[in-house]
Amino acid sequence: MSALHIKKGSTRHSAYNLRPTFSDVQERHTIAVLVENEPGVLARVIGLFSGRGYNIESLTVAEVDHTGHLSRITIVTTGTPQVIEQIKAQLGRIVSVRDVHDLTVEGEAVERELAILKVAGEGEKRVEALRLADIFRANVVDSTLNSFVFEITGAPEKIDAFADLMRPLGLSEIARTGVAALLRGN
Amino acid sequence: MTREMTGAKMVVQALKDQGVDVVFGYPGGAVLPIYDEIFLQNDIRHVLVRHEQGAVHAAEGYARSTGKPGVVLVTSGPGATNAVTGLTDALLDSIPLVVLTGQVPTFMIGSDAFQEADTVGITRPCTKHNWLVKDTDALAGTLHEAFHVATSGRPGPVLVDIPKDVQFANGAYNGPKPAASHYQPQVKGDMEEITELVAALETAKRPVFYTGGGVINSGNAASQLLRELIDGTGIPVTSTLMGLGAYPASGKNWLGMLGMHGLYEANMAMHGCDLMINIGARFDDRITGRIDAFSPKSKKAHIDIDPSSINKVIRVDIPIVGDVAHVLEDILKVWKSRGRKVNREALAKWHKQIDEWRAVNCLNFKNSEKTIKPQYALQRLEELTKGHDRYITTEVGQHQMWAAQYLNFDDPNRWMTSGGLGTMGYGFPASIGAQMAHPDALVINVAGEASWLMNMQEMGTAVQFRLPVKQFILNNERLGMVRQWQELLHGERYSHSWSEALPDFVKLAEAFGAKGICVSDPRDLDDAIMEMIEYDGPVIFDCLVEKHENCFPMIPSGKAHNEMLLGEADTQGVIQAGGAVLV
């Protein structure tokens, strides 16, 4: 409770900066939220993040149990450990939320994201794009004489790396799904 | 047993099955079928308010004074948007409400129809949960679930939005089945943590209980258990604004309210304690003051039914998630089984220290023979009403803090005030709700004239329903708390903090068919208060008080508990730029 960097006796500060931080380190966590799939449930989750000033780095959602009407929302967020704890507690008190899992804490998780990239170019650049796509195990899903559309699956960092390589080779558009994640093992 | 009926009939049937006896509401196009059903029955009384905000605050007053959920019925569009302030107020103070709104028919939703608003969208952040019911067959289940959610776990307001065609259509009605809900918050606390707390309590040298509205919300049993624990251990207790009455003000371990305008002894005890036991409070910023200087040397335990309250503001050492009554029962069981131990010697010293702080007499004020001091008015009100079956509501501002300081509450559910949201205009409609629940009781709204004007239209309701609510207005012709902050923080530039065109409150009362009393001489005050109490009907009591009185003690923004201002002499230049940023 002393990591507040306030001089003894000082009163010239704002309490907006006064947080009894456990640690100032920003951590990235992947949180899986199992929700009842009812109208407005995504708005409840997103509204919580915007209303309380939390970050969303990526968010994916789809119904995963059609008979039980359950959807799985996977959120990648950043914050200090205290903020991450608050996010989980706040998610847990939403009435339509059934379960909250912090995949970053609960064990090793598999994280995958799918991206589709359009790369336009000719000659050497076109050949190089195709060669790199092969190295990254990206598939060509559409092609014209001067463009490719690649599909790539992997951890977000892998997709970042691939997109960075494609940029000088004529990357014109990219669509990403956001992260889907599951704990490893049983 | 399943029965076939219209959606509108289901609403009334569900309210009956949930034991509702009063609904506060205002009709309109999109709820006409429900009002038709209300017309055809006599079990549920409907109180016609004069503004939907009034309906919600009245339901809050009803809920807070009974422990039962308050019910509101309003129409679509403006009916729903007018309810938003009340919903937010109830959310911040954890008051159970079920608000039913009409909606345009399902086939017109999204077409910008007349009196259409995205009610569930607008109220999503200010309700605990809400539903738009698009199918009459789902209506009964949703209504019962609404009552369950509003009253389970940390209570709060819920809203059910019912399109007009759903009200007209037929569907299957089923009675309440509480076990059917997925929403089942944990009520029992963790025994290991409870044992750790008892162990800390047995050895603590300077322990203090810090209790909040959660004790009241947990029900009468919680207050009884709290008294047993406090009087058994002899540990002093302070309370937030919301928790007053859970432990009796006449009790020997009572320290008085804590916080920004709390008592000196309460705040000093919080600052100097070595064990703080928070029961059903949430370390609100009005309580903690400067966070890094908040009770620096204490071990902290926190009992709360909402896991998100724990470690939100203040890091605690012993977190216990559970319902206050359940947890207190277990604490008492463990404490008794371990031999009812406390550190008697140290506690005696601690009480001696507290008595020294108490001797400062922080509520002392300079009385006047010429003008009525607001503190004096409340002292007299306390003296002349304390034997009555009394319920107090307040508006928001200086008068609210003075009421909390100078009125004493010996029982829970007797004190209704807007704590978290600080809603001016709360008190008058809340007094109407409390009076509906307790027709024979003395219900007094302690008000400032500015707050009171914000919902003065409810005079019509009070007169129509013969509710003898007493509007005790401390009239300083100022927005007193705003004025106080402008004096202390903004170089005495009193920007828009006074009223130049106040009504004649006596004539105003008479215009509504009520009684008005005006008093300005301290010598007439007692007789005037007695006249107010004895009058069988609503009274506007216009008490002209000292215009420039400030509310003390005060912990200025950005200061710690042990840096309180006790009176005018302490105020010169103490609040600096950093503090001025705060509210």
- Number of helical regions of chain A: 5
Tell me the domain tally of chain A.
Answer: 2
What do we call the CATH homologous superfamily of the largest domain in chain A? Answer: ACT domain
**Uncertain residue ranges of chain B:** none
Between the first and last Cα atoms of chain A, what is the distance in angstroms? 38 Å
Estimated share of beta-strand residues of chain B? 15-25%
Number of domains of chain B: 3
Q: Which ranges of chain A are low-confidence, i.e. pLDDT below 50, for 5 or more consecutive residues?
A: 1-6, 16-21
Percentage beta strand of chain A: 35-45%
Shape of chain B from CA axes?
A: globular
Note the total helix count of chain B.
Answer: 24
Name of the level-1 CATH class of the largest domain in chain A: Alpha Beta
Oligomer: heterodimer
Question: Which radius of gyration of chain B do the C-alpha atoms yield?
Answer: 24 Å
Describe this structure in words.
The complex is a heterodimer of chains A (186) and B (583). Chain A has two domains: 22-106, Alpha-Beta Plaits (2-Layer Sandwich), CATH 3.30.70.260; 109-183, Alpha-Beta Plaits (2-Layer Sandwich), CATH 3.30.70. Helix content of chain A is 27%, strand content 38%. Chain A has helices at 41-51, 81-92, 103-106, 124-135, 156-166, and strands at residues 27-36, 58-65, 70-79, 97-102, 109-120, 139-144, 147-154, 171-176, 180-183. In chain A, strands 5, 6, 7, 8 and 9 form a five-stranded antiparallel sheet that branches. In chain A, strand 6 (139-144) and strand 7 (147-154) form a beta hairpin. Chain A is elongated and about 55 Å long. Chain A starts with 26 loop residues before the first strand and ends with a strand. The termini of chain B are far apart. Chain B folds into three domains: 3-180, Rossmann fold (3-Layer(aba) Sandwich); 191-358, TPP-binding domain (Rossmann fold, 3-Layer(aba) Sandwich), CATH 3.40.50; 374-544, 3-Layer(aba) Sandwich (Rossmann fold), CATH 3.40.50. The chains are: A alpha+beta (186), B alpha/beta (583). Chains A and B meet through helix 1 and helix 2 of A and helix 24 of B.
